[in-house]
């Protein structure tokens, strides 16, 4: 297999005495959707923040497209082609939807007209075509998630880090947005997503990494992962896999 | 071209004023109001578009004033070059301060505080340093002529300051519609989100501070030529820090015309107060302070923002954000 | 020049004046710790309090050490009202607006004082103004010693309020986690106002301790508050022990630099400390990361 687009190697991050991420390694294969799952507090968002440059790792390295990008500031990583969304959406509330997306589009388009064209196109692609002139703070939760997605897509990334874009959405909203993510992957954007909605992970991801208490405890295809006793234990507690197994046995 | 039409129209109307109004008092009033509008536009670039509220823009105004005066008086530099020198010095100071402050990540209260303190340090230094004339101040010799940038007619000064205001309006409009402007506004709204989208926030803010400082310094340079005298209380005094932030906030923070509108309103109020009660010390500032609090209370987006929401209400559109409230992420 | 006979009294004097700074800084840091904004009206309120103490003496014949028991509650009320009915509602919950409103209030108060009392500098005459305590190697001014003790009494009282009363607990809860406190049924607007009131009361007490040996004019508060800003930044914004230690340090630094550099340069020294601390370690000596 080719060298992955993103390689995280042995990353450790401490906050005071708390080890949020402990020697975690993972990779995202170019053109694929990779999922990062794990129980609450496992350190997923911290790992994302390290990859996107918002938090500095104490140890370990991040390579992107073959280059060592460890410790680079977020804006430089964005220029290299790493975009992220925030788990707690961070729209520019005072601006319209179009102006929000425009900020991202400006990364590779200096001219306002060209950037506006890109912004409008991406707005329509994520299903915000009708909302472009609305103020960002008038959007629903689902709308804000789409806006978050659109803004980062407008930077024309190679790698997109999605931090729980489906959280807080109802099943029909999830059904609407999953194809959008798949479509952008089909267009060649590599995606690494943190997700709790297992159904979506199962249908989207080709590779899954499981983070628990800061460590990567399992990796594999979605089907392998759900069958992995270590994963079940991480979610449901020690001995859960055995108990479940025993029940199946009877 | 279309976005510049309102600017052209406003400038054309204002440029015609001296043909109609011949009273020196009125022209003098307008010259001072336009000078404050210019200083306020400087503040507006950094504070209005960039969300970095400086409480010490006197640092730039004063540097412009002193450099213009000192270059002429002590080094015999031509007044026009002195003027440019003042602007350059202001911009350089803005760049240096911006680089220091924004790289160490200071914002909000801290930024307000450090700018305030910085202006105060400069005021104290200027009040004791020999080169500024210390407590006595610096006087530019009266010597009328184009070469010396001194005019008998108020109208000449009026057109010069109007031209400077015009440049600042065009600059604000250009910034508003540029990539730099989009990034600057993004930083104001939410710095982390902006960084994630590839915006180098501290550089963007520093550049904004350079432009901001240069514009406010230009107002200071003009002050030196118009009044031909400067001391530390004028140059680096709190009054100009207050007026520079007051005008855009009253007119409409982060809008092209906000500072101009705000300056005309503020100066009219100040003048009216003087007429009503005589020239009592502090009265104009009491009024300014009250207007500042009331505008933030009632129309947080200033007169221009207030008018816009009023018009929206009249058209019975769904009101945007709860009654004109400005939201900062 | 560096003989201990000069240095030690200078240091002791620095500590005594530092204590008054501490009180002013305490009010500022308390407000910052809870409301997360710098109160730019602090200096103007100090000027107002000095005028109040002055007129209490001149018109009512009240000694400042007596009038403090009237002025502290009066200024607590003033601070409460300002925050609850002006600053809070006017700023729509936006920090930047809150800064501007306190700045606006500062301008109003300061210039109202200027308008009413002109720029004249006034002093009061109390019998103990020049009394000293002889320590053998140096003399201590009585009013300053009183001030020093009073400041620690006030700091202790504040600590008691914060630790043992429900209001204190509510204040600490809001400082830590505003939303959580709100959900737990704490009236945040009230807590903000109480905090602002306490901060303003500190200023009134400081004014009564200062007036016997100091003067008053409409701008007098500014000088103190810029020093207080420095202290708060040095000690760490929102940290009470930081404010106390920072104030004593600054008091000594000022006293020593005044000795070596003269008055106005000594002032610049303080500002330079201030700017350097802000740039190098904005969290201060005791504060969490800014």
Secondary structure elements and their pairing?
The complex is a heterotrimer of chains A (250), B (329) and C (290).
Chain A: E1 6-15, E2 18-28, E3 33-37, H1 44-51, E4 59-64, E5 67-68, H2 74-80, E6 82-84, H3 97-105, H4 112-125, H5 141-153, E7 159-163, H6 171-186, E8 190-194, H7 198-204, E9 207-212, E10 215-220, H8 222-227, H9 229-236, H10 240-249
Chain B: H1 5-20, H2 24-49, H3 58-75, H4 79-103, H5 108-128, E1 138-139, H6 154-176, H7 179-189, H8 191-196, H9 201-227, E2 229-230, H10 232-235, H11 238-251, H12 258-277, H13 283-298, H14 302-314
Helix pairs in contact in B: 1-6, 2-6, 2-9, 2-11, 2-12, 3-4, 3-9, 4-9, 6-9, 7-9, 11-12, 11-13, 11-14, 12-13
Chain C: H1 4-35, H2 42-60, H3 64-91, H4 95-117, E1 132-134, E2 139-141, H5 142-164, H6 166-176, H7 178-183, H8 188-210, H9 220-235, H10 240-261, H11 263-280
Antiparallel strand pairs in C: 1-2
Helix pairs in contact in C: 1-5, 1-8, 1-9, 1-10, 2-3, 2-4, 2-8, 2-9, 3-4, 3-8, 5-6, 5-8, 6-8, 9-10, 9-11, 10-11
Structure notes:
The complex is a heterotrimer of chains A (250), B (329) and C (290). With 250 residues, chain A is of the alpha/beta class. Chain A has a domain at 6-87 and 158-249: 3-Layer(aba) Sandwich (Rossmann fold), CATH 3.40.50. Chain A is 39% helix and 24% strand. Chain A has helices at residues 44-51, 74-80, 97-105, 112-125, 141-153, 171-186, 198-204, 222-227, 229-236, 240-249; strands spanning 6-15, 18-28, 33-37, 59-64, 67-68, 82-84, 159-163, 190-194, 207-212, 215-220. The radius of gyration of chain A is 19 Å and the shape is globular. The model of chain A has no long low-confidence stretch (mean pLDDT 90). With 329 residues, chain B is an all-alpha fold. Chain B has one domain (2-298): ABC transporter involved in vitamin B12 uptake, BtuC, CATH 1.10.3470. Chain B starts with a helix and ends in a 15-residue tail after the last helix. Chain C is mainly α. Chain C has a single domain (4-280), classed as ABC transporter involved in vitamin B12 uptake, BtuC, CATH 1.10.3470. Helix content of chain C is 76%, strand content 2%. The relative contact order of chain C is 0.20. The mean pLDDT of chain C is 88.
